[in-house]
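Below is a filled-in request sheet from our internal design queue. Each sheet records the structural input a requester submitted and the sequence that came back. We keep these sheets so that new team members can see what a complete request looks like end to end.

REQUESTER: design group, bay 2
PRIORITY: normal
MODE: inverse folding
CHAIN LENGTH: 355
BACKBONE (tokenized):
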């Protein structure tokens, strides 16, 4: 006769019934959202997907952070944006992570901003730190996320204060009264190390692309080894080298900017459509590779947002839906009013109407 306790015991002992992690995020969905928003970084995205698979399967070391990743590359290639997209995919909002701008911690005594004031100093009993405990520790179903941005610009003492986080996933504040846990946390770091050395070598542009990639990676590795202690680099799970943006990625980046602009204008009943000539003009005007996507953002602000603001202030004084067509004439971007649908029904609500 089989008793229920025996059946339950046999089920609990069965390897097939062992649960995975309790996290609610889907690595495939996270990867899909990253590929929609991050252009030209397929290798880095694939690496993040593999790491998230390990976390989702519950195979990570429980005595260390879930993930420690260092993103290395030029400015404007999507390193910080990658972390924003991960936060949006996991938590539903892109600001759901703790960001520490390490360029503000360039002096050695600024390590107290991370670890708190030591005993005997003002504020030592308050356990004040730049680290947001709620965003770092996350929840049972969603991991916390922390970003140490531009870590190479911080002082050596500040960087060394992070080694215990990378090693065993905890940080005891200097007062000795509070312990922060990073064992349920995705720890990201970004760095521009090696960019200056790479762009100072003008002759590399004549090399084949594959050789350029290997040389760029070697220069960045050497820059990281000069800047950081080996024991610090050895505690990082994965180091991803972001590729520089090229002209083939520009149309996709411009489309992302256009979608974001239309999203902001939607609540006002306004839509902007860009002609193929306008998109080509934006891609060919003012792009500099070593500035990355930020050059496109500046161009978008100067050539689109500024004249668009004048157009809206002069023409759109009522609350009726409006469609604008952006085109290029005589080397200048102009906006003209498009025709409304014959049915009179607009896909955008009027101002004040719920979306």
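RETURNED SEQUENCE:
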């Amino acid at each position: 006769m089989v008793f229920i306790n025996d059946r339950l015991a046999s089920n609990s002992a069965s390897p097939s019934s062992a649960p995975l992690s309790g996290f609610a995020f889907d690595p495939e969905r996270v990867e899909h959202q990253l590929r929609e928003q991050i252009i030209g970084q397929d290798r880095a995205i694939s690496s993040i997907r593999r790491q998230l698979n390990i976390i989702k399967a519950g195979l990570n070391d429980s005595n260390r952070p879930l993930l420690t990743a260092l993103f290395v590359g030029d400015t404007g290639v999507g390193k910080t944006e990658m972390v924003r997209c991960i936060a949006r995919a996991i938590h539903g909002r892109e600001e759901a992570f703790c960001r520490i701008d390490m360029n503000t911690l360039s002096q050695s005594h600024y390590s107290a901003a991370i670890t708190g004031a030591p005993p005997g100093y003002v504020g030592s009993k308050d356990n004040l730190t730049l680290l947001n405990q709620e965003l770092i520790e996350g929840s049972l179903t969603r991991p916390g996320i922390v970003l140490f941005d531009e870590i190479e610009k911080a002082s050596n003492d500040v960087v060394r204060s992070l080694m215990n986080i990378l090693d065993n996933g905890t940080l005891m504040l200097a007062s000795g009264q509070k312990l922060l846990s990073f064992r349920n946390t995705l720890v990201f770091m970004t760095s521009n190390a090696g960019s200056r050395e790479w762009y100072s070598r003008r002759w590399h542009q004549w090399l084949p692309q594959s050789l350029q990639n290997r040389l760029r990676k070697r220069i960045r590795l050497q820059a990281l080894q000069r800047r950081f202690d080996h024991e610090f680099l050895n505690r990082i799970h994965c180091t991803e080298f972001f590729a520089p943006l090229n002209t083939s990625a520009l149309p996709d980046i411009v489309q992302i900017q256009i979608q974001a602009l239309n999203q902001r204008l939607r609540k006002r009943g306004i839509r902007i459509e860009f002609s193929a000539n306008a998109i080509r003009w934006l891609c060919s005007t003012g792009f500099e590779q070593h500035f990355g996507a930020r050059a496109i953002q500046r161009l978008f602000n100067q050539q689109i947002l500024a004249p668009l603001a004048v157009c809206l202030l002069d023409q759109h004084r009522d609350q009726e839906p409006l469609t604008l067509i952006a085109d290029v004439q005589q080397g200048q971007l102009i906006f003209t009013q498009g025709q409304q649908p014959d049915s009179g029904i607009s896909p955008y609500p009027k101002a004040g109407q719920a979306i």
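SHEET NOTES:
- The CA atoms of residues 40 and 248 lie 9 Å apart.
- Strands lie at 67-72, 98-101, 144-149, 170-172, 179-181, 185-191, 238-241, 270-274, 322-329, 332-337.
FILED BY: M.R.
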